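Help needed: design a sequence for this.
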């Protein structure tokens, strides 16, 4: 009898593990494949950086003489492609963790998002300083710096890298740059990379804030695609932490908008 109970418990735990793993794999496989294999992803990145280049060309010549100009950019999934970690996790049947992230960034092996390196190099050649505002941890500065240098990115030095210290909000770090420079453009894959207006906002409010800034998208704000992770996903879960996979699935299902009247 005891043996049967143990066997049942074991089978139940294997079943639950398989279900959670399958859920994680189902959730991430498509967006990671899209980032790695869809030429449409590549085209969207080129489109973003082409528009960004066009906007830089529109800056009046006298502005370069009068002011110190700067670009503020995010790193992950804006300049650096980290899809390799997500792919590895799927293959290993593992979920994301701080440990797996650190193990990946320690390798300094991220590649450039299509068009990113060329764009930033051209901006620097015009005389514009580049500031990397990232929520990578300050313990990752050294490995990230090596990664940026290996990609030959401009301003790859610690004076131009503002990483996560006491708050995930990037606003105070943006203000540090804005105090000394005229910021001509911000780049990111997460709306929190642009202004504080999006922070901790519910899905509907994120949309209405996006509408308020409508004229700035593709102008001062350049957005890169990221369907794998981001604040958009946290907003779906109302920023609640430690939810069970089942409850998360329920919340995702409830956010789907169909066309039939229930
Ligand atoms: Mg990012």
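Sure. Designed sequence:
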């Amino acid at each position: 009898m005891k043996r049967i109970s143990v066997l049942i418990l074991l089978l139940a735990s294997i079943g639950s593990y398989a279900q959670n793993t399958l859920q994680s794999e189902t959730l991430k496989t498509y967006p990671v494949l899209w980032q790695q294999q869809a030429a449409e992803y590549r085209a969207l990145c080129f489109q973003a950086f082409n528009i960004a280049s066009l906007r830089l060309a529109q800056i009046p010549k006298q502005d370069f003489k009068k002011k110190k100009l700067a670009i503020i950019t995010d790193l992950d999934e804006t300049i650096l492609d980290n899809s390799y970690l997500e792919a590895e996790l799927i293959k290993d049947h593992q979920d994301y963790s701080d440990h797996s992230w650190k193990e990946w960034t320690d390798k300094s092996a991220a590649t450039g998002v299509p068009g990113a390196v060329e764009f930033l190099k051209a901006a620097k050649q015009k005389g514009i300083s580049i500031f990397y505002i990232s929520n990578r941890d300050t313990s990752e500065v050294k490995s990230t710096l090596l990664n940026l240098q290996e990609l030959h990115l401009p301003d790859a030095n610690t004076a131009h890298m503002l990483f996560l210290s006491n708050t995930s909000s990037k606003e105070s770090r943006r203000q540090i740059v804005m105090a000394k420079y005229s910021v001509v453009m911000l780049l990111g894959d997460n709306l929190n990379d642009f202004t504080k207006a999006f922070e901790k906002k519910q899905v509907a409010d994120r949309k209405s804030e996006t509408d308020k800034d409508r004229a700035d998208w593709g102008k001062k704000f350049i957005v890169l695609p990221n369907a794998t992770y981001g604040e958009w996903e946290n907003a779906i879960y109302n920023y609640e932490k430690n939810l069970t996979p089942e409850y998360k699935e329920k919340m995702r299902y409830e956010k789907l908008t169909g066309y039939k009247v229930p």
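DSSP finds eleven helices and seven strands in the chain.
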